[in-house]
């Protein structure tokens, strides 16, 4: 028993800040399954997402309390600070699952908590990037776009809980339209930086991590958010007047996300097929599963917003691909945890965790 607690303690000390991507991936596949009519699978994944969210919040709280220097080091690391936006997206994606089940009132406090995290992290992360970044272009990677995912996730959940706000609902609709625009602006900034890094600097296999798929996931969630803005009735004439703009940009973001999928597959083929890098489990794999699930859900919602049924067929195919990817990542997670525990148990000396 002491060995198990020591192993858990070490895991908490070394917990990657982006592990909330597990909740993002599980929640979005659950939501996509619900949206496409597979309620049993959706409910099972929803329970997994709930348990994962509770455990990760507990582990993060314990890490902050017991290993404060470690979490502060992650916060001021330009490569890692944007990973904390997975907390924002995880809360919103899980809240979206609550809304699908008619539990909008429970999702309301989650949105406000997510917004508080987002507001702090957005300005803090740009402060870190401006004043503490000394790694130049090497620091740029696809994981930065999780900031866009967090921003657009506020739009999606915000539109679902807005009717609960009564007379303040119009203010919420204005805010989520603003957030959608902020997300698009951030995407333009980060995609330009990322393209510069990929095309004008040497690319090594380690540079093409699963985090790269967030580039597609950010475009897909922007599509999803735009589709919701089209479908929801704000009741404000000046917001209705910009709907044609939202229509066009939403379709373009879906097209961009679809175009990126073959490109990202090409990168993976080069890494694992040409350069013979083995495929192993890492927490970053959940950042690959999430975009697949989000693309499935975004296609389904855009099919409703555009009344284009072909996109519904795309969604039905993609949701099963996302589920297969989720199962593969889950098997990798369980196998890796069990293997790590067995190794840890054979070396008792490793059970000593020093406070940082």
> Under the CATH scheme, which architecture would be assigned?
Alpha/alpha barrel
Main sheet summary: none
Question: What sort of overall outline do the alpha carbons produce when their principal axes are compared?
Answer: globular
CATH topology: Glycosyltransferase
Q: Tell me the Rg in angstroms.
A: 20 Å
Helix-strand string: HHHHHHHHHHHHH
Quantity of strands, as a count: 0
Strand % is under 5%
Gap from first CA to last CA: 24 Å
What class would the helix/strand composition place it in? mainly alpha
Number of domains: 1
Give the helix/strand layout.
Layout: H1 2-13, H2 21-35, H3 39-66, H4 68-75, H5 85-100, H6 104-131, H7 146-161, H8 169-200, H9 214-231, H10 237-240, H11 243-274, H12 286-306, H13 310-346
Helix pairs in contact: 2-3, 2-5, 2-12, 2-13, 3-4, 3-5, 5-6, 5-7, 6-7, 7-8, 7-9, 8-9, 9-11, 9-12, 11-12, 12-13
